[in-house]
Every structure is written in structure tokens, then in C-alpha cells.
Amino acid sequence: MNERDNTLLDNYFNGLLGSKDALAVEVRALSEPEFSLRKEMEAFPRKEAKREAFIATLRNMEGEYFQEKGTQSPPLTVVRNNMPRWIALAASVTLIAAAVWFFNQNGTPVYEQYAQHTPLSLTVMGNTAKAKTDAETAFGQKDYARALAALDQVLVAEPDNIKATFYRGICILEFGRGSEARAVFEPLAAGRSALREDAAWYVGLSYLKEKDLEVCKVALGKIGPGEAHYKEAQKILKGL
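Above: the chain's sequence. Below: its structure in C-alpha cell form.
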């Protein structure tokens, strides 16, 4: 993320943007993973504070209304007079329960938090030099369509180029084609190449992106101590 985008987000969270510019930030957050992650990180402390405030309110209400043990039932007239208050209480409890559920859901790990791709670097030489340079540039710009096209050109001339194959899988995954991406990653994860552990990680990420959390747990559980991405995998598993 460049300095201009960082300043834009700072202004957004400090309430310094007009409605049109603020809307533009929201739209970008839907399609740009890095932008979305920064937005989520900035918003998280506010969500946690609101969550704690909701819980505190619920406890106070519980103490006022539900823990008056040993008292007699109030007269019917009192109950009737307090009916609006009880209705407001019921609505508040419902709102609190919904809010707690929302905040807990937002705490679940998501693909965009962990899909921090290592920049593509290929050995630029031979007839594929231009295609490799194009692939590196496009991938760095998150232009996955152009990167995929360039990588396909590389693989026509160099079908055994494992790194090009691996990054092709990432591009496909970014388009939401999880099963097709796994067809790339799984053979690499089962092999002996230097990208074996990275491929195993991306198999798990592909299921996280699809929100297939049970299968994601199984895939990430195969990443053992000492392997690349083990700590990251454990963070996700603890959050699922």
C-alpha cells in the first residue's frame, strides 16, 4: 500500500473525508485485500470497545432486573406501568445478543488476513524474458489477470518451471477458483521441491477463502512444527 492510500485511510478513520470519498474507500475495501485488511485492523479496536460496552450493559441490566432474589412479585399495576421498560429491556437484550454474535463472527480468521503473497521473482533469461518480467510486474501490482496470462506464456516454453506453476496457482486462487488452484498446489505439496511447504499452506488458504472451515482445519493441521507457515497455521486453527 502506498503513502497516498495510507493517508486516505487515516483521513477516513478520523472522519475527515466527505461522503463521496468515504464511499470510495468502502468500495475499494471490497475488492483490494491489502486495503480491506488495513481497514479491518483500524476498525478492530473500536469493535472490541463496543463489544465490551455491550457486555457491561447486559450485566448491569441483569443485576437490576434479574437478580432481585427474595422479593415478592410486584403489584399488577406496577408491572403494567413498567411494561414499556420491560419491552425496551427485551429489545436491548436482543440487540446485545446480535451484537456479540457479530463481533465474534468478525473475529474468525479470513483469507485476506493471511494471503500475504511473497513477491514473484523469476530468473529472467532466454526467450521468456519479457513474459517473466511482465509476470513479476503484474503480480506485484495485484493485476492477477495479466500475471496469469504472462505465466501461461512462460509455462508454454518452460513447462517444468515450478515457481511459475506455483504463482499461477496463486493467481487462479485470487479469482476464487479454489478447486482449480488446489489442482496446482496439491501435487507440489506432495512433492519434494523447495515450494512444497508453501504449497501445503496455500491448500489450507484455498479452503479458508471458500469458508470451508472444517476442511481448512484438516489441511492446516498437516503443517507440522518447524515447517514454513506453522505459526500462521496455528493462529488460524485457534481462531476457527
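Residues 113-239 form a domain with the Serine Threonine Protein Phosphatase 5, Tetratricopeptide repeat fold (CATH 1.25.40.10).
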